[in-house]
Amino acid sequence: MKSLLRGCVLLCAAVMAGVFPAWAQNYPAKPIRLIVAAGAGGTSDVIARAIAQKLAESLGQQVVVDNRPGANGVIGTEVAAKAAPDGYSIILGSVSTHGSNPSLYSRLPYDPVRDFAPITLVGQAPYVILVQPSFPANSVKEFIGQAKAKPGQINYGAGTNAARIGTEMFNSMTGISLTHIPYKSTAQALTDLMAGQLQVIFEPLVTALPHIKAGKLKVLGITSTRRLPMVPDIPTVAEAGVPGYEYSGWLAMYAPAGVPREVVQKLNAEIVKILNLPDIADRLRSVGFEPQPTSSEQLAAFTKAEVAKYARVVKEAGIQPE
Amino acid sequence: MMEIFSNLGLGFGVALSPMNVLYCFIGVALGTLIGVLPGIGPIATIAMLLPITFNLPPIAALIMLAGIYYGAQYGGSTSAILVNLPGESSSVVTCLDGYQMARQGRAGPALGIAALGSFFAGTVSTLLIALFAPPLAEIAFKFGPAEYFSLMVLGLVAAVVLAQGSLLKSICMVILGLLWGLVGTDVSSGTQRFTFGYSELSDGIGFVGIAMGLFGFSEIISNLEMGQNREVFTSKVGRLLPSLDDFKASWKPVLRGTGLGSFLGILPGGGALLSSFTSYMVEKKLAKDPSRFGKGAIEGVAGPESANNAGAQTSFIPLLTLGIPSNPVMALMIGAMTIQGIAPGPQVMTERPQLFWGMIASMWVGNLLLVVMNLPMIGLWIKLLTVPYRMLFPSILLFCCIGVYSLSSLPFDVYMTAAFGVIGYIFIKLGCEPAPLILGFILGPVMEENLRRAMLLSRGDPSTFFTRPISLGLLIASAIMLLLMAAPVLRKKRQEAFQE
Q1: Cβ separation of A69 and B190 shorter than 8 Å?
Q2: Ramachandran sector of residue B270 (left: φ over 0; alpha: ψ -120 to 50; beta: rest)
Q3: Statement: residue B233 has pLDDT above 80
Q4: Which of residues 229-268 of A touch B (CB under 8 A)?
Q5: Is there a contact between A91 and A115 (Cβ–Cβ < 8 Å)?
Q6: pLDDT band, very low/low/confident/very high, at B340 (cuts 50, 70, 90)
Q7: Domain-embedded: residue A146
Q8: Which of A67, A155, A194 sits opposite B141 (nearest CB)?
Q9: Are residues A40 and A111 located together in one domain of the fold?
Q10: Are residues A96 and A53 in the same domain?
């Protein structure tokens, strides 16, 4: 009886193995769900919908954006991690869900490396360091000098974990101590910076740009590795006195771990093609993301490196994981 | 002055082009619809429509999205008046007297005064935006964490004044609201508070669930309890439009509400909501006979409705002039602008005057469309009340559940709303009013956040609340209000003592 059962299982497995490649070739045979672990209307949602539209055209199947906001992306990412690994559920992950959350939550219900099959990086969004126009520093170097002269007296605002971690990383790499004032949104923090309640803020370039152009705020540096063609006058933080400092928000596509290799390859090929389309690239840039398609192996290495980086920063900054 | 006229002329030229009038109409019609449907708010609607706006010209897209927002304010008051369901946080107050008016067969005048008051407020605040947008925007900068804290204190004191019955009960309700507001992730440390391991609770209890449960569901339960003989306010529909007496009673509250709403709407964070609560409180304080409030006083509808519409309009000021969103809807508008390649900020007014003034003019056009659309519809809405309960109630419940679920696709939220329905029913039985609780629930977290922020900024020195003039003024106002409130109570106590 037992051997009969085992035989059955083996037979089934054999049939499955035989069927799988063919099944992957037919992929997708039904609509695909693209999970966004954030509310509708936000930056990642806008990007997800733009990609979903093109993906649906090229795959010939509907791609439905499923917004699962809440708990800093934990809720939606958990849904994706536990979804069937058949390629019909994928997620647009972010620096929070797949980079810093493991260091911020002690009981995270998913593992960004173990539970996911990377597809491709989507894009990166650099931050800029903003101060009031009257602040007595015109460069990153001068700013560090000011902060060293007045330890603990300079307030920085952060409306997101990402902004906070970027600033804490700056703190620990320069040996200064800026005081953290928490906010629920970057918009509130930006208002308080302009009103003079705060002295400095790390803000995504795209939302900071209008205030810089209007002369309401002064920019000291950008956190990307290289200067951006869009804003060639803004020096990188690394070149301006903090060598090695690099920090960006990012978005990337993942499938649940265990998805057939062929499916990952197919999705990678299609999404990379989409990210290289001029109109999609423009759409991404308009919300602050520089498109950066990669191979799934590159994304795997990138995710691991990011998780390790945030673990280090969070530990050095003394942030207690929840 | 001439400049204003030429600017407004430019704006109306843009707003009155047939295409833009059409998009404005689509926006306000859609807004009214989702405002009437409980739970489905402007945030979700605008978010879902964002991708569609990719292909529209920028000005048409923004006119339509703005129309959804203030259209929803109109629609929200309709369901508040007719079925006691606040579709929007700012229409919670409208439930208090609006629903009572409907029960007395005066749904028509209530809807009418809400529409006309809103139109008046919309007209005035559009003018205000055109005249004073840049200087008004600076007000937002005067409000730092200390000022917000004091403003919230004032709001909470006002919450107690709102209440009908016993002072003690309403204080208890405010405190309960504050406690419920604590649930969720602590902003400063990221600690989970009272979430009991449910990640669904980590962003706090949803406002829509609480409001729907406490107001709508509980009302339905208590209506069912009355069995076959439950009150039928359907047979006596009464007149459709407000009478001359109604207008006489309402014009001052409308004026005051407009003023309050215009001012508070500018402030980031819950301005429109605070303005409707504040207006209600002011009207109740000024009324010759405050006891009529909560029993169908038309002033209690006219004032807050004007206030929330004025507030909704002026909340565009920080967005248009500074590029700063004052509430989540405005944050979405920023998203819409960025998608269209417009960087929201101070330069919009000078670099794209057609867009700036066109949008302002379209707000007035939209308000006009809303009145024209809503006044003839009053009859239709009231017809809705003649639908038998056995059909009306299940459909309301169904729409509520869909609305709650649509917010974040969590069945948990639906269960929670049901639970709040039961709790609300118990409150009705105990004679405890949910309005102060709601206010505590909304203002509490903002107050806590700003208290801690102000204390962090002052490095732990509480004198920051008394040395900043605006903050001090707000605290003094709260103290005076507390005294005014306590005085009659003390007097009554003394009288009772004498009688014995």
Answers
A1: no
A2: left
A3: no
A4: none
A5: no
A6: confident
A7: yes
A8: A194
A9: yes
A10: yes
Q: Give the range with max mean pLDDT: B134-138, B235-239, B315-319, B465-469.
A: B465-469
Chain B residue closest to A183 (CA)?
Answer: B187
Q: How far apart are CA B95 and CA B296, in angstroms?
A: 10
Q: Is A214 on the interface with B (CB under 8 A)?
A: yes
More confident residue, B141 or A162: A162
Residue A111 carries which DSSP code?
-
Q: Are residues A192 and A261 in the same domain?
A: no
Closest CB to B456 among A50, A181, A216: A181
Residues of B in contact with A50 (CB under 8 A): 51
pLDDT, averaged across chain A: 87
Which of B141, B198, B450, B471 best tests the A interface by mutation, with the highest count of A CBs <10 A? B141
A121 and A258 share a domain?
Answer: yes
Do both A115 and A257 map to the same domain? yes
Q: Does A181 touch chain B (CB under 8 A)?
A: yes
What pLDDT is attached to residue B420?
93
ipTM of predicted complex: 0.74
Question: What pLDDT shows up at residue B236?
Answer: 53
Cβ contacts of B339 on chain A, cutoff 8 Å: 46, 283, 286-287
Least confident of B169-173, B232-236, B487-491: B232-236
CA distances from B391 to B34, B40, B217, B372, B379 (A): 20, 21, 15, 30, 19
Same domain flag for A216 and A261: no
Q: Which A residues in the span 96-125 are in contact with B, Cβ-Cβ below 8 Å?
A: 104, 109
State whether A266 and A117 are in the same domain: yes
Residue A296 resides in a domain: yes
Mark yes or no for CB contact B324/A191 under 8 Å.
Answer: yes
Please indicate whether, in this complex, the C-beta atoms of A78 and B453 are within 8 angstroms of each other: no
Does the pLDDT value for residue A28 go beyond 60?
A: yes
What's the average model confidence in pLDDT over B407-428?
88
The three-state secondary structure class of A120 is strand
Residues in chain B closer than 8 A to A187 (CB atoms): 268, 324-325, 331
Q: Where residue A201 sits, what CATH number does that domain have? A: 3.40.190.10
Split at pLDDT 50, 70, 90, the class of A44 is confident
As given in the structure block, the two tokens for residue B305 are 């409705």
Identify the residue among B40, B43, B45, B50 best suited for mutation to test binding to A, counting A beta carbons within 10 A and taking the highest. Answer: B50
Dump pLDDT digits (tens) for A201-236. 999 888 888 888 888 899 999 999 889 888 899 999
Residues of A within 8 A of B470 (CB-CB) are none
Q: Which of B188, B322, B355, B447 to mutate to test the interface with A (most CBs of A within 10 A)?
A: B322
Confidence of residue B87 (pLDDT cuts 50, 70, 90): low
In this prediction, residue A198 carries a pLDDT of 93
- Report the residue of A191, A213, A279, A280 to disrupt the B interface, i.e. the one with the largest count of B CBs within 10 Å: A191
pLDDT band for position A296 (cuts 50, 70, 90): very high
Residue A140 phi/psi, 5° resolution? -60, -40
Range of the domain at A142: 126-222
Q: What percent of chain B has pLDDT over 70?
A: 86
